[in-house]
């Protein structure tokens, strides 16, 4: 009689510890994050200013919520900090991030969403955006993302190819 009771107790202990570990893993991904972003954008009319350098450098704030290990929703607001291209004033966006959680320290992701680009002459235009990137983190609340993003917009160069490519670097603090 002593062995069945101890076997049941052992089985319940194992099940309880496994469910606790799973709850801790799920909690890890349910997080709010806030951070700073830096973006270098290039518009498809690359003949503007006769060089292949980035047209605009932007800096701003990024905030998001990751309720699941494979999904997050994110908002971004950037303002122009370089005056190389005087057509662009700001850039904002709302994107969904879809993660491939390889492990806690490294994830690949894709983004889909809508972005707005504010210009001096053409006002504001919302357009679809998509991107891909990598997320790095260590055992602290700090998170680092590097991402390439494409925004299909036509107000900047209405006669040429209608897109903007950007390289985004972001550092977040996860709560």
From TrEMBL:
Signal peptide positions on this chain: 1-21
UniProt keyword Signal, yes or no: yes
InterPro entries registered for this protein in UniProt: Beta-barrel_OMP, OMP/PagP_B-barrel
Pfam families (UniProt xref): OMP_b-brl
Keywords: Signal
Start and end residues of each Outer membrane protein beta-barrel domain: 8-175
Protein name, per record: Outer membrane protein beta-barrel domain-containing protein
Organism: Vibrio genomosp. F6 str. FF-238
């Amino acid at each position: 009689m002593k062995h069945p009771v101890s076997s049941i107790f052992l089985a319940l202990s194992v099940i309880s510890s496994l469910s606790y570990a799973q709850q801790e893993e799920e909690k890890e991904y349910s997080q709010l994050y806030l951070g700073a972003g830096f973006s270098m954008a290039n518009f498809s009319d690359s003949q503007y200013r006769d060089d292949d350098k980035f047209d605009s450098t932007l800096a701003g704030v990024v905030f998001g919520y990751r309720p699941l290990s494979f999904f997050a929703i994110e908002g971004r607001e950037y303002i122009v900090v370089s005056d190389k291209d005087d057509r662009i004033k700001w850039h904002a966006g709302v994107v969904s991030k879809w993660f491939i959680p390889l492990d806690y320290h490294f994830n690949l992701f894709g983004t889909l969403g809508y972005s707005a680009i504010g210009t001096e002459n053409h006002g504001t235009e919302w357009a679809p955006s998509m991107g891909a990137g990598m997320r790095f983190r260590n055992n602290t609340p700090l998170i680092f993302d590097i991402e390439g993003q494409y925004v299909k917009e036509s107000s900047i160069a209405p006669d040429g190819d209608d897109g903007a490519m950007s390289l985004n670097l972001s550092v977040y603090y996860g709560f």
